[in-house]
TrEMBL record:
Its EC number is 1.18.1.2. Residues 14-72 form the CpcD-like domain. The gene is petH. Gene3D superfamilies: Nucleotide-binding domain of ferredoxin-NADP reductase (FNR) module (3.40.50.80), Translation factors (2.40.30.10). This is Ferredoxin--NADP reductase. Pfam families: CpcD (PF01383), NAD_binding_1 (PF00175). It comes from Gloeomargarita lithophora Alchichica-D10.
């Protein structure tokens, strides 16, 4: 698979892309585009792959904005068809604090385009002043024997409310009790690890992947456990839990079933990617999502300290074995694998190994890159991609900025 990707990366050098640009005005500076600029300032023109970055910079300098890019070989996009009623409507017996739209109204109105700026993304259905009270259905360990720390997969019952969500969103959990000042604890955010249909595929649950925060007090040297994470990791099935949200628009998955999805995770950063992968590949999900038959490529690069810390390992590897043409799985196991310099293998080293291929993928308008997990993982990944970009005479920072503008570079670190 690697060699075929490299081959396809090489063939990119000969490909042409169509840029759709707005905001340019006819002027001596834009005359050498050799295309008539419409009165609206909108222009389409062909750019060879190898000149893409220079052209992007030139367009930016001239005040233009690229609104779409596609290979010349691909047809121009057509508006998406109206979505079928993919989301089942939950029976509600209590009213949420505030709902932007119910699932019913979402599925009956516009298709769920899941892009920023659209209104049909559920947010803050439940706020801290009136949280939804769910119930813990299960709390299972994810770290195998010999691994480091405690990480749990928790499933909550949402029946009796209207809490619904999309893959890539987060919920808030309000731990019981009070802080050092006697005030009720504030909520902590957790990325949702299940698809919108939940692990039981009945739209009635939400799941999380939570690591118990444990550290040494800087002065007393005592072991300290995080308030909310230790509350959750030791929560008994049947216990009530206060839930807020959902929140977050940064990590939403594109609707396009042909998209290429690069996922870079460290530790519990796997949570949203589990949701994506289940949506893409799980048989029960496929039946519920007739409009989303994933035929693209999902590539998970997953950083963990030891093999027993590979969260959801069995399921990930089963998916990889079943869908080798659509799901690629790469581990960076820091305490067991060595990087090229003989040091620990962190995620940025794996990204560096595959940087040329990742860079080539990022030239494709269908590619979205996601990063989730430990704050601090960004710098090494940026450095690795900068090297790949520089080999092609491009600068990573402005390129990445452009990817962000296009909604194709997504980061959620904590
Ligand atoms: P707290 O009791 O709040 O303790 C945290 C405090 O400990 C901090 O104030 C910090 O100053 C201190 N501290 C932490 N480490 C050290 C150290 N080494 N030395 C000294 N002081 C230290 N977590 C997950 O497990 N899974 C997820 O999916 C997840 N998703 C998230 C999504 C988002 C969008 C965000 C913002 C956060 C996410 N988190 C996730 C993190 C989560 O919100 C909490 O921050 C985490 O669980 C710790 O909360 P706590 O109440 O246990 O710790």
């Amino acid at each position: 698979m690697i060699s075929s990707s490299i081959a396809s990366a090489t063939s990119y050098n000969n490909r042409m892309f169509i840029f759709e640009v707005v905001g340019l005005r006819q002027s001596p500076a834009t005359d050498n585009f050799n295309y008539a600029i419409r009165q609206s300032g909108r222009i389409w023109f062909q750019v060879p792959y190898q000149r893409m970055n220079q052209e992007m910079q030139r367009i930016q300098r001239l005040g233009g904005r690229i609104v779409s890019m596609r290979p010349l070989s691909e047809p121009a996009p057509v508006p998406p068809p109206v979505a079928k009623t993919e989301n089942k409507v939950r029976q509600t017996s209590s009213t949420p604090a505030k709902a932007t739209k119910t699932k019913e109204s979402v599925s009956r109105s516009k298709p769920m385009t899941q892009t920023k700026g659209k209104t049909d993304i559920p947010v803050n259905l439940y706020r801290p002043t009136a949280p939804f009270v769910g119930r813990c259905m299960s709390n299972e360990p994810l770290v195998q024997s010999g691994g480091i720390g405690i990480v749990q997969h928790l499933k909550f019952d949402l029946r009796g409310g209207n809490l619904h969500y999309l893959e890539g969103q987060s919920i808030g959990i309000i731990p019981p009790g009070a802080d050092a000042n006697g005030k009720p604890h504030k909520l902590r955010l957790y990325s949702i690890a299940s698809t919108r249909h939940g692990d039981d595929l009945d739209d009635q649950t939400v799941s999380l992947c939570v690591r118990e925060l444990e550290y040494e007090h800087p002065e007393t040297k005592e072991k300290v456990y995080g308030v909310c994470s230790s509350y959750l990791c030791h929560l008994e099935p049947g216990a009530e839990v206060k839930i807020t949200g959902p929140v977050g628009k940064e990590m939403l998955l594109p609707d396009d079933p042909d998209a290429k999805i690069i996922m870079m995770a460290t530790g519990t950063g796997i949570a949203p990617f589990r949701a994506y992968l289940w949506r893409m590949f799980k048989p029960g999900e496929k039946a519920l999502n007739p409009d989303y038959e994933f035929k693209g490529l999902a590539w998970l690069i997953f950083g963990i300290p030891t093999s027993p810390n590979i969260l959801y390992q069995e399921e990930l590897e089963a998916l990889q074995a079943e869908f080798p043409d659509h799901f690629r799985l790469t581990y960076a196991i820091s305490r067991e694998q060595k990087n090229t310099e003989g040091g620990r293998m962190y995620i940025q080293h794996r990204v560096a190994e595959h940087a040329d291929e990742l860079w080539a993928m990022l030239q494709e308008p269908k590619t979205h890159a996601y990063m989730c997990g430990l704050r601090g993982m960004e710098d090494g990944i940026d450095a690795a991609l900068s090297v790949a970009a520089a080999k092609q005479g491009a600068e990573w920072a402005p390129y990445q900025k452009n990817l962000k503008k296009q909604g194709r570079w997504h980061v959620e670190t904590y």
